Amino acid sequence: MFDRFKTFLDSLTGHGHASSIEPGDPRIAIMALCIQVMEADGETDEKERRKVRSMIKDHYKLDDAALDALIAAGETAESEAIDYFRFTSDIKRHFSEEQRIDLIGMLWEIVYADGERSEMEDHVIWRIADLLGVSGRDRIIKRQEVAAKFRIAEEETAQQEK
């Protein structure tokens, strides 16, 4: 699953090592959607922030300054947006259905990073998926895959602690 996510992120810029953040950079739209998902339940958990930072930083090989610039650009874009359409319309036009489904999987990873899933997070991802043209079936399959992955990780952690 991570390989598919990596391929998706590569497709956004055409390569996996871009570090400069320019206006119109599709990574800003991805970051803004990540922020919207993190804030959906009214709490921005540190585990969610770390998940987003590590996924984006590791994939793009960003240093802390470039990562902070991308986060700041994403926060600005997110605060100026009146809805999700600003971010999803461009993604929908430029990316395949499989890539859009992979993005939904990434957003579920953010939701589950804090170990809890709220009704508001479900709603945000439903809206984003709908605007991206991702079917309800695919959205639910991605949620189940991510939830199973997190359950396995929790079980392994619990066993290691014994």
TrEMBL record:
<dbReference type="InterPro" id="IPR007791">
    <property type="entry name" value="DjlA_N"/>
</dbReference>
<dbReference type="InterPro" id="IPR029024">
    <property type="entry name" value="TerB-like"/>
</dbReference>
<dbReference type="Pfam" id="PF05099">
    <property type="entry name" value="TerB"/>
</dbReference>
<feature type="domain" description="Co-chaperone DjlA N-terminal">
    <location>
        <begin position="27"/>
        <end position="142"/>
    </location>
</feature>
<protein>
    <submittedName>
        <fullName>Putative tellurite resistance protein B-like protein</fullName>
    </submittedName>
</protein>
